[in-house]
Design goal:
The complex is a heterodimer.
Chain A lengths: L14 E2 L2 H4 L3 H8 L12 H11 L34 E9 L2 E10 L2 E7 L12 H10 L9 E2 L8 E2 L2 H17 L5 E5 L2 E2 L1 H13 L5 E3 L6 H11 L4 E4 L6 E5 L10 H12 L10 E6 L4 H5 L2 E4 L5 H14 L17 H17 L3 E5 L5 H14 L6 E4 L4 E2 L3 H12 L5 E5 L3 H4 L6 H7 L2 E6 L11 E4 L8 E4 L5 E4 L12 H10 L5 H13 L5 H11 L16 H12 L10 E6 L13 H5 L13 E3 L1 H7 L5 E7 L2 E9 L7 E5 L29 E13 L19 E3 H6 L28 E6 L8 H9 L7 H5 L8 E7 L6 E7 L8 H5 L5 E3 L5 E3 L9 H5 L6 E2 L10 H4 L14 E2 L5 H13 L12 H5 L5 E5 L6 H7 L3 E2 L11 E4 L1 E3 L3 H8 L1
Parallel strand pairs in A: 7-9, 7-17, 11-12, 11-14, 12-13, 17-18, 18-19, 22-26, 23-25, 28-39, 29-38
Antiparallel strand pairs in A: 1-30, 2-3, 3-4, 5-6, 5-19, 8-16, 10-15, 20-21, 22-27, 24-25, 24-27, 29-36, 30-31, 32-33, 34-35, 37-38
Chain B lengths: L17 H5 L17 H19 L9 H4 L10 H4 L3 H10 E2 L2 E2 L7 H17 L11
Helix pairs in contact in B: 2-6, 5-6
Classes of the chains: A alpha/beta, B mainly alpha.
Chain lengths: 1005, 139
Amino acid sequence: MRTFSDPSAVQTKHYWRSLQRLFDSPAVQDRLADEFRDGAARPPDGITRRRMLELMSASFALAGLASCRRPEEKIVPYASPPEQAIPGIPKYYATTMPLGTSAYGMRVESHEGRPTKIEGNPLHPSSRGAASVWMQAAILGLYDPDRSQTVRYKPSPKSNTHQSSWDAFLKFWTELSPALESSRGKDMAILTEAYCSPTFARLAAKFLERFPEAPWVAYDPVSDENIYEGLQLAAGQSCRPVFHLERARTILSLDADFLLTESDALYNAGNFAEARRISDPRDEMNRLYVVESALSVTGAAADHRLRLQSRDLPAFAAALALELQALGVPVLIPDKPSRPRFPAPIENRISIIAADLAASGSTSVIVAGRRQPPEVHALVLALNQALGAFGNTLSLYEPKDANWGRTSDLRSLATDLRRGQISTLILLGGNPAYAAPFDLHFPELLHSVPHTLHLSTHLDETSRLVEWHLPQSHFLESWSDARAADGTAGVIQPLISPLFESRSAIEVLGILARDQEQKGYDLVRETWMESLLGPQDFESRWRRVLHDGILEGSALPSITPTLQQDALAEIVFPALLGPAKSRGQDLEVVFQLSPAVYDGRFANNGWLQELPDPITKITWDTAVLLSPATAKKLNLESGEVARLIYRGSHVEAPVWISPGQADDSITLTLGYGRTAAGRVGSGVGVNFYLLRHSDAPYFDGGLRIERTGRRYLLAQTQDHWEMEGRSLIREGTLEEYRSNPDFAAEPQKASESRPLWQAPPYDGNYQWGMAIDLNSCIGCNACIVACQSENNIPIVGKDQVARGREMHWLRVDRYFAGPAEHPQVRFQPVPCMNCENAPCEQVCPVAATVHDGEGLNTMVYNRCIGTRYCSNNCPYKVRRFNFFNHTKDLPELVQLSMNPDVTVRSRGVMEKCTYCIQRIHEARIEAKRAGRSPGDGDVKTACQQTCPAEAIVFGNINDPNSRVSQLKKQARDYLLLAHLNTKPRTSYLAKIQNPTPAWKAEETA
Amino acid sequence: MQPPVEGTVAGGELWENEEHYTGRSPWGFFTPSIPLTVTDSLVTRGKERYQIYCSPCHGSDGRGQGILSRYSSVKAANLLEERIRRMADGQIYYIITNGSGLMSGYRYPIQPRDRWAIVAYVRKLQQEAPHRSGDAITK
């Protein structure tokens, strides 16, 4: 291994990027010596090429002849052009993405009638201009060539499905429905996904008017059921929580990943970052405690994280309640409860957290995760009320037009199906054959029902078993509506007419309820005319709703329920207050939502599959996560295949040793192992739904693990581009920052390397630069997908990622510090630094990478001959090389997702972050037309625009008043590898932690 | 290329003031006068757009003697005639937008603001040009 002298080594903390690195395994040492991973710099071989093209064919393409280096395109004019459409000028439409009972407002860019890029809608209360990975990736989901294209009919369970039509289905339904109607729907049932939509709710009521005795079941594999049920238990009425983290000084998360995978994470992330943003040593910061089993993004953001098995959290919550009561917080708890006892270190933590919460009073808030049972949520609501959080850090809203789904309903539906009481089963969305709890045996049940129909976007696991498969429209091509958490009504308007013969869920529900087809547009307008807007001045107000995406002022009033003390005393506390049991060798199994493919519904999306997991950095796979101690006990290594045995079924999957994982707690990520997802998602990873039971959907004991001795390659982006232990991340505590605001500054040392020639003055009007605040970044990966979507970045597949050839222009590095059992985690987004003294430019033999007058390090693809010298000389390793022509041989459909403002690269070309130069040009042209110069904020890079935490700021560094200049002026500002004299235009702001001294004292004791 | 889905509203196309975009009030009456402040720059813009889109048929002086009249028997309207002088501003705007007789609509290439600018320029031509006996004849 080479060593580097680093004059800027101001860090005292020891950072490591993976366990192998920490423990200096010889394999990693070998790899580190080689700057590029084995194969990363080598020409491709035949087998990988084939597999790669297979993957690529579902992912990305540009029209063209197979052998042509620069594909030819033809321009097709509009025959009768619509008003306001100027070719080349994009239009933006407001719409909404429904996900479970949440809704996220979007502003979608449309080029000549095809949507190409998604941003958050600044007016929408849940997204506020930011977008999550799932929102960003929806554009590729729309153009998925594996989407179901026609109605399919299967006459008997044994036969194959064959192509049919909507007319045939309508005929079938109108013949069947009178009989069902006359029996009042007794022998039919309907199963939908969770929803929160006025139109869907209205049509559901219409459907139930016609078939009053039909059981209506909603189910999402991962839902907020526990939260709703718990709040109902404590408050006596349905309510959903909205947290105001920007007002909180002390936050406690109990198994809640509220920054990434819980509902309304975008909103929470924005507020959380807002409260931690500091520009001056006098600024205040919040403090976050996280108690959880698997390391989540929220746990990574915590000032103090306590790892605890998920099954111990109810007792932890009860102990905390008693501790708070002892501190004078008015929690009403029945007499003489038996206090669950934890080992002394955890007990101490409980008292530290309780003291901090009690001291912050109404500026504190406790957030419980959806994994925890209803009783925990009920108790947490009582605690929040006792702390005075209602109306301050927590608001409750009535869940209007919502159905979040109940596992118990699904179970009784399964019972009815098993008894043969149901002759017609209607499935609107969802994929129960894949994702329903294993103990319900849904695939077999579907066979036993005479008539089944399933509406879904893909011919998935469920669709293959049903009589009628109906293709579902993507939300970007259908009309509907959805309510945000606070009740704000948003409209879903289509960006494009349905690409295939598909119908939306409301259109199908309309058919079922009325026996006749009605357009989604009319159904939605009917709802809004009836209830949301009223007939008065409807057209102009409706137009305003479509323009804004939301109905302003439609947020519901928050409610302040009186807590049901009886229920709390009789049901909740007794359920939680049991003494903690000793468990011996018993392992806990915990199910978590994938931060990439969600519950499996996005499995056929290549962007999401290739997205590295924020913590493990594994792509294209799922792994069994276990702690280093558990791995040692079970004699397992990362990448080894283990057999998981639970309640009589078993699954084999690769294990991954995850630092920060609770001991004896095994975390399984749902959403993988699809068998009928499509050409991208089928066969990726392992399906852990096979171990999930309806009575223990989120965690349970009783798991056993056996070794198999086999190994499996997990592709991850973790050990690539090792930065050899330089002080890349700088951080301090709030105290340190206050006593020495310049702690992150470079030591005053002369630079080792001197420029070879005189630097240009860079004094033009516009000099672009970027500042990334590590204090705000939560590591959610949204910037990666936003960049991929904006810049036409190809997907390369697992094999290529394993060779270190991923193409992401922007990566998020994740470093661990401290002990492997409970490390601290730091994230660092790394785009191109756009160095003023760029090492890449100095070695390019053909001047393919050159500087422009505004300080951009630009790439001229046409000149590039692929020597890769630039990548070799880049100290930040932010350049990406096209080993293949990733953009040929691909379906026409996916070409539609390309951004026409960005060149599509060919094989043999180096590429990298351009600071979204196309957006700079667009803003410049726009400003010129308006007769002004681009102002601050006119140019937003894709990563900046999507960031929910506003961690990335871009702008003109020659304007002293621009936001980026203000940030760069801060004492926390520092440069990566400044001693190399590269003069990067991207700088970082050091991270500030806000630990409590009590916790630290405990650690050293 | 795909036409936008019927009924959708893009950002910046709120069109709260319907008359501004259609030239007609919600009750179907033509807007009597240009709903923008008529400035020199608006008229100059109107002149420029007029020369590009209108003058080939209507002629640069507005008398309907554009280059088209040399090669075709199709008669373009004389914009200076009484009939058109009496039209409401909104009606001229409406005709630019949707066409009239053989003239096709120009809603696609000319933005609403530019259409009003053209109306302003046509008014200027009418004001400046003296009445001629032939102008009063209606087609």
